[in-house]
Amino acid sequence: MTQTSRIIGPLLEFFFPSASPETRLFIHAFVRKSAHFVEYALLAVLAVRAFTSSNTGIRHYRFILALILVAVVASTDEINQSFQEARTSSPWDVLLDITGGLVALISYRIIRRKT
Fold first, then answer.
1. Is residue 51 a part of any domain in this protein?
2. CB 3.0-4.6 Å disulfide test: which of 14, 25, 30, 104 passes with 41?
3. pTM of the model
4. For 19-32, what is the mean pLDDT?
5. What's the domain range around 87?
6. pLDDT value at position 19?
């Protein structure tokens, strides 16, 4: 949180000058968690698109492989964070990341079916 507070903190003070410290802390946490969700959603969509253009048999398993990729990257990131004193590691973040990837893949599938 100290890493992102240098950027998000001043922005929150600028846009919400009368907000209490608790409110700013809540908004800061919301922004950080939303970023996790969106990052891994984007990774999932890019992965499924890459697997779709493959000429090998992985094309048939593109959605599952994209979700596995999201889970592996999210888990690896959290394991890496557990070794850094300034960062916190949480299995809930992995679950949030996987959820972002899953929501994106479901949305992608629905949108592609309609076109």
1. yes
2. 104
3. 0.84
4. 88
5. 34-114
6. 87
